[in-house]
Task: inverse folding
């Protein structure tokens, strides 16, 4: 759509035709292009038109609605497979939880972006191979490699979804940042859907309870599981057809939480010294430390992705820079603790996975911190930080593939 807009920018009639053919896609594409087209009078007119007043809620075309309804049904059926096939839930869900949502959402973006048969076949083949691999791993009780493989499999499916999202422009930095923005918007929208669903569930169960009908088991077994499976799919659909719904909420959340997280981290690091706790001898503490690290890094990435094309005030940039510096310090502490534990007790699948992840995160955060420093020094702009993030994403994908598919073989399914 972006290419068609650029080609027909001097042809008002053709632009109008494109807009009426697919209004939501036109709005998203034009919004992404507008920073480059501000000097053109026709672009200014379209910007005012698309952003005038409060936009109506769009539910897309009938074909899109039908596709989403079918996708929700497929996701619900996948979630019900343990009951349909008489498979143990303890076996099925840890291995296959990612297949409930990721493949159908990937199919949606592949359809929307009109990917070629070869691209769709490649993604479908990778998804099928992953499903076969994870379900044929030995069912070893308390297997670290199995747990690691299941966790990283979800990240692998997330990477495939990213390929479907960016479409044919896989090396496009803005598309990759758009994928990060989509993830942030999806979290906000899915949370709202789940909260609304929880309220509706409580009201429905209590209303039926008032007339003496206990529907809890039936409701959760069918309505509940189909609703949970459908939430990210419906959330995706709403964010793509109505980008205005959360387009202004997500940046505000990022702007509010960035300084709060910075203050919390500084207080937390001081409290660690006071409490006497350390990640070197406390395994659970080290685990929490790493979860904290990933969460803070995600906030930084989301904040930069949301505003990579917009001007930010100097205090906001300083907050991101200081947050990155503190994250590097936290990462350094976690990395030294992992190396200490490996030196003392040897290598294990968990320690190897955490070591590799922390090294990759440290390198990435050092690059982001350096870029943010250049922004503060007026040697670069915030878009350079976004580029550094976008170019590094494939490195995480490679590591995810290694942990998911190679670790079980290297460590003998231990």
Result:
């Amino acid at each position: 759509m972006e290419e068609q807009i650029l080609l027909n920018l001097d042809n008002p009639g053709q632009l109008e035709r494109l807009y009426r053919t697919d209004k939501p896609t036109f709005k998203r594409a034009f919004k992404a292009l507008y920073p480059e087209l501000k000097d053109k009078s026709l672009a200014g007119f379209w910007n005012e038109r698309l952003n005038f007043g409060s936009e109506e809620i769009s539910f897309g075309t009938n074909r899109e609605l039908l596709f989403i309804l079918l996708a929700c049904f497929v996701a619900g059926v996948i979630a019900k497979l343990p009951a349909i096939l008489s498979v143990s839930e303890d076996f099925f869900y840890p291995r296959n939880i990612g297949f409930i949502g990721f493949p159908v959402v990937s199919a949606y973006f592949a359809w929307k972006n009109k990917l070629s048969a070869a691209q769709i076949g490649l993604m479908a083949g990778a998804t099928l191979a992953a499903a076969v691999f994870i379900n044929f791993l030995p069912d070893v009780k308390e297997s670290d490699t199995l747990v690691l493989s299941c966790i990283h499999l979800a990240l692998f499916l997330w990477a495939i979804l990213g390929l479907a999202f960016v479409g044919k422009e896989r090396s496009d930095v803005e598309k990759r940042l758009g994928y990060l923005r989509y993830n942030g918007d999806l979290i906000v929208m899915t949370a709202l859907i789940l909260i609304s669903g929880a309220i509706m569930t409580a009201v429905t169960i209590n209303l039926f309870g008032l007339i003496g009908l206990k529907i809890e088991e039936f409701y959760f077994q069918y309505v509940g599981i189909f609703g949970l499976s459908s939430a990210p799919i419906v959330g995706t659909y709403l964010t793509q057809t109505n980008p205005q719904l959360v387009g202004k909420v997500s940046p505000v959340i990022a702007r509010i939480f960035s300084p709060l997280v910075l203050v919390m981290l500084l207080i937390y690091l001081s409290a660690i010294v006071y409490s006497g706790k350390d990640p070197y001898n406390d395994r659970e503490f080290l685990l929490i430390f790493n979860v904290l690290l990933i969460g803070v890094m995600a906030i930084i990435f989301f904040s930069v992705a949301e505003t990579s094309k917009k001007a930010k005030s100097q205090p906001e940039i300083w907050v991101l820079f200081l947050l990155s510096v503190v994250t590097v310090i936290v990462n350094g502490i976690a990395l030294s603790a992992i190396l200490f534990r490996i030196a003392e007790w040897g290598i294990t699948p968990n320690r190897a996975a955490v070591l590799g992840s922390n090294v990759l995160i440290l390198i990435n955060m050092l690059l982001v911190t350096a870029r943010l420093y250049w922004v503060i020094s007026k040697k670069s702009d915030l878009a350079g930080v976004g580029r550094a993030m976008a170019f590094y994403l494939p490195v995480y994908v490679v590591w995810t593939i290694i942990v998911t598919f190679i670790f079980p073989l290297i460590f003998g399914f231990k």
